[in-house]
Amino acid sequence: MLKNIMKNCWEMNKVKKVSIVIPMYNEQEVAEKCYEKIIDTLKRIEEKYDYEIIFINDGSKDKTLEILRNIAQKNRKAKIISFSRNFGHQSAVTAGLKKVTGDAVVIIDADLQDPPELIPEMLNLWEKGNDIIYGKRKLRKGESKFKLLTASMFYKTLNALSDVEIPKNTGDFRLVDKNVVDVINLLPEHNKFLRGLFSWVGFKQIPLEYVREERYAGKTKYPLKKMLKLAQDGIFSFSIKPLKIVGAMGIISVVISIIILVYAILSYAFNWNNLTAGWTSLMVTMTFLCGMILISLWMIGEYIGRIYDETRGRPQYIIKETINFE
Ligand code: UDP
Ligand code: MG
After folding, report:
1. Atom nearest to 113 CA in ligand 1
2. Given the CA of residue 88, which atom of ligand 1 is nearest to it?
């Protein structure tokens, strides 16, 4: 009894810890500034929260790692994971999440486009019982029309195809409770599309709106090729609807062949006009066979879709808490 009370008191007074996860790829222009800004913010809430900063050097070819090494030497709470080559932003964040030890985890870009000043507000919302607080971009400064247009197209397509609602105008900037991170870490799938998975796992999520600033320095590390890969991961790992589209096309094709057949029979019977000899049989066979082939592809696709579902190894459900179980 006494032991329990003491334990509770200790738990209440225990300083909570927040882990900051920052992926970096060729960010020598911003690395130092990013660290300073984040430390500034963390110093302000030092009394309530202990912290660790986990930098992931995603195979940078510039001085990023050197700069990070210097930081880690000065501050033992700054940790570094360094990749052997560039594995991409999502892999970098995934690696960071695997190593966090905090009670709350913040994922943030290195280029200060996501303001670190928002972290205390996120922590406040977290203390109120929210599990995920995701940054929602109210305004995006300094991003090209092309990027805005493609991003908006991507989210529209993704939400039309996918079974889980993935919030628009949201990147990976978010605060996540450690329990949720543990669930994500258990998922065995490769090519994780994190913002989709964070939606998929459920829990209590709320947006926090912010203005997305311009990049502090340097250029974007997301060229079109990487954006397309991200979009592909997002669409194909959250939906097997593209397969079903093939099925729909097959059915349409078969229906067209039937219409042509009916039309041909009627025109012969009532002598509407003289169809070229051979036209009917060719057209009907062609559209009918194409339709049947597409339908077969869709059927095979359905099986593949199911195999795919199984191999991703996502659990059937996630329990948030149980009550009165020993
Ligand atoms: N990044 C990474 N590996 C990559 C590409 C990007 O770790 O292959 C990091 C990058 O250093 C930055 C974050 O991911 O911290 C977001 O990249 P960026 O700001 O270039 O993307 P944008 O804001 O232009 O979409
Ligand atoms: Mg950026």
Report:
1. 23
2. 8
Neighbour-count burial of 250, counting CB atoms closer than 10 A to its CB (0-12 exposed, 13-18 middle, 19+ buried): buried
First to last CA, the chain: 18
Q: Where are the domains of the chain?
A: 16-237, 241-312
- 187 Cα–ligand 1 center, Å: 23
Architecture of domain 16-237: Alpha-Beta Complex (3.90)
Pocket (CB within 6 angstroms of ligand 1): 23-25, 27, 58, 86, 88-89, 92, 109-111, 113, 220-222
**For a substitution probing ligand 1, which of 111, 149, 227, 229 has the most ligand atoms within 8 Å of its CB?**
111
In tens digits, the chain (326 residues) has pLDDT values of 666 666 555 555 668 999 999 999 999 999 999 999 999 999 998 888 999 999 999 989 999 999 999 999 999 999 999 998 888 899 899 999 999 999 999 999 998 888 999 999 999 999 999 999 998 888 777 777 887 888 888 888 888 887 777 888 888 899 999 999 999 999 888 878 898 899 888 899 999 988 888 878 788 888 888 888 888 888 887 777 878 888 899 999 999 999 988 988 888 888 777 777 787 888 888 888 988 998 888 888 888 888 887 888 777 666 666 565 67
Q: Which residues pair with 23 in a beta bridge?
A: 56
Distance, CA of 202 to CA of 46 (rounded, Å): 30
**C-alpha–C-alpha distance, residues 25 and 86, integer Å:** 8
